[in-house]
Amino acid sequence: MIEFSNKKIIYTPCYCEENVYHLCKAFGKLDDIYVCFISNENRSIPIWKQRASKFHDGIVIWDYHVILLVKEKSNPTKVYDLDTTLSFPCDFSIYVQESFKILDDPQYHRKYRIIPAEKYLKVFASDRSHMDGTWFASPPIYSPISTSESVNNLPLFINMTENLDSKDFVSAYFTETLIFIGFMLLVPIFYAANFYFRYKRHRAATPWSIQEKVVVITGASSGIGAALAYEFARQGATLILCARQIDLLANVSKECKEKYCAKNVLIQKVDVTSETDVMRLVETVDAAYSKIDCLVLNAGVSMGETLESIEDFDLIKKIMEVNYIGSTMLAFYSLPLLKKADKARIVINSSLAGIIPVPLRTGYCGSKFALRGFFESLQSELVDDNIFITMAYAGAVKTDINKNRLGENPKKLDFNNAMSAEECAKIIVDGTVKGHKEIVFTNIGKIGRLMESVFPDLLAFLSYKRARKFYVKEIIDKSL
Ligand SMILES: NC(=O)c1ccc[n+]([C@@H]2O[C@H](COP(=O)([O-])OP(=O)(O)OC[C@H]3O[C@@H](n4cnc5c(N)ncnc54)[C@H](OP(=O)(O)O)[C@@H]3O)[C@@H](O)[C@H]2O)c1
């Protein structure tokens, strides 16, 4: 016996294709369930025993009609017709006998298209345009059904002469291939244009040296943040370092002064998720220097487990708060001071996980992807203000990030091929001075960045394969 959930059936008169779509969803297993479209070239098919009929025998001449067929091993096949006056469901033989009578005129001969229900749920889409905007019947209250490939393919299902497979699938990939070939032909032109705009940006952003620039760094108490402080100090910056652990900040400040000869280093205890702390930091900088030349948004936390294994969703919220809200909030309050500087910089220490999806880091990837959207959008707003935003996408860097991962049982990032924090900081500072729009680390990262827009499915596959090497195998298997 096939399991049919007792959920309330979704039904809208005259929208049989959508009613059947929802009916399919109500079944537990779709193995032996088929959607049957009935129509013909004249869009005139008689079906008897229909609730919408005004005649005593229940005949309606539909343009098309859709029913569901359920094959059962021991019982006769059942027909689920939401518009019939017969039983629901009805034995196939009774339904055929009662509803599929013959009218002699060939224009009324019925044709049938049978589609496995599973496939129907995957490909069917309708924008309801066949109702011609006049809405003979009120449309369903829920949104039209669509897929990533189509907003409307109902005509293909009703067209009884075309092969659905070739139309629905092959043409979608054919169109994609054509777009791709066209794109490839234009690649040299795009490449030249891209080079020109990069050069133009570089011209606008430079010359710019770090000497005596007011540089604010978040998360400067350890790892890449501390290394950035040393590199900026080495090149003569005036520093404002912040993080929550003031004792560690004091050590970094001391090293900036003693080892890298920094003249001015302020430290301030700041939790980037606290609006009060962030506002106070901006007030401190305003009082001391009245401008910010370079805002480095580095504070961040990570995770290392599957979404499924997380016990408390607060972990994802916390990552979002530190990585995304923390960075965007500080950028928001710093804007007036950034505008007072000449060719100011905002540097975001994102991650390759901000452009390439990585398992076990849903919340982390989400926060870093979000940063990209926010700051690329902000960049377009700030072009006339001569503020240059640099997104840094580093790969694995040897820091305390493993130790500081949130969650009960985070899996560690493999540091075997990781670069040092000092090397990472040098690359970020160099890209900042040059005013680069983005700094993508490692060759794999660069390829990934390129593939991201052109071969997204291949990239997702490769990123999963690569992640498998990094993380404990059984955890990944469990997450699949
Ligand atoms: N390590 C990598 O492989 C790697 C790769 C790519 C990108 N990144 C990014 O680099 C950044 C720095 O990470 P890291 O590797 O240097 O790790 P880390 O050594 O753990 O440093 C994280 C820093 O963020 C600060 N921080 C955390 N929560 C904060 C909060 N609520 N308010 C203020 N500061 C906070 C920490 O300071 P307190 O604890 O003192 O507050 C610490 O200074 C992160 O954004 C990370 O996503 C790291």
From TrEMBL:
Domain Protein N-terminal glutamine amidohydrolase alpha beta roll: 11-164
Pfam families: adh_short, Nt_Gln_amidase
Entry protein name: 11316_t:CDS:1
Signal sequence segment: none
Function: Putative oxidoreductase.
Organism per entry: Funneliformis geosporum
Lineage per the UniProt record: Eukaryota, Fungi, Fungi incertae sedis, Mucoromycota, Glomeromycotina
Coiled coil stretches, renumbered: none
Molecular function as annotated in GO: hydrolase activity, acting on carbon-nitrogen (but not peptide) bonds, in linear amides; oxidoreductase activity
Keywords: Membrane, NADP, Oxidoreductase, Transmembrane, Transmembrane helix
Keyword Nucleotidyltransferase listed: no
Annotated Gene Ontology cellular component terms: membrane
Family membership: Belongs to the short-chain dehydrogenases/reductases (SDR) family.
Transmembrane intervals: 178-197
